[in-house]
Structure formats: C-alpha cells, structure tokens
User: What shape does this take?
Amino acid sequence: MRKGREGSPLAPRLREPEARWTARPYTREGRKARLTNFAKARSLAGMATMNISLPDDMKAWVEAQAASGRYGNSSDVVRDLVRRAQVREEKIANMQRLVDEGLASGIDDRPLKQIMADIKSGVGLTLE
Assistant: This one.
C-alpha cells in the first residue's frame, strides 16, 4: 500500500511542504526583509512618529551611517543620537549637582598643608 504514488495516502503529505517552500523561495534578501519586518512590528509598538528636517549634508551623513551596516535604517541612527544626547545631559546634570554641593559646603578654614595631610592620613574621608 505504501508505494509513494499519486493515489497513495503518503503523497499529499509529502507534497505539502514542497508547495509551501516553492511559494516562498529562500533568499538572503527575503529572509532579511522578513526579519526586519518582524523586528519592526515588535519594537515599534510603543513608538510615535516624528518628521524632522535636516540640511543635505546631515541627511547624507545619517544615510551613510545607516548604509554602513551598523544601523538598520536612518531612524535607528537618529534614535541612537537621541539616546547618546540623553546620557550626556544626565552626566552633565550629575556633574553640576556635585559642583553645587561642593559650593554649598562652604570654604574650609584649615590651611592647604593641613588639608593635604588629612587626606593622606585618611581623616575625614567617608565612602558612600
């Protein structure tokens, strides 16, 4: 009964995967496009759209960065730049906070030699 012919019960099951794979041939570009679309669907779920205007030279630079392969597209380049700017602003704000704390702490009445000697001996140092 298992002859593998057209009338055999095995024949339709063997042809199903072939039909599925011949309908969508495997190519590197096709696979990349499907993966990119999948990633977009998952990563853009909570994102808003924004249009920006750039001078031609900046636009060319962003497109060159995207074409280099480091980024998927020009939106990824802009998102990375925004993230870097956010981190930079946080660092600057933290440094400003430390400067403000130092200024608010007042001026030490001890001479510089005494301050340096205390630092070397570990007096007045607190680790947080």
Residues 8-45 form one domain.
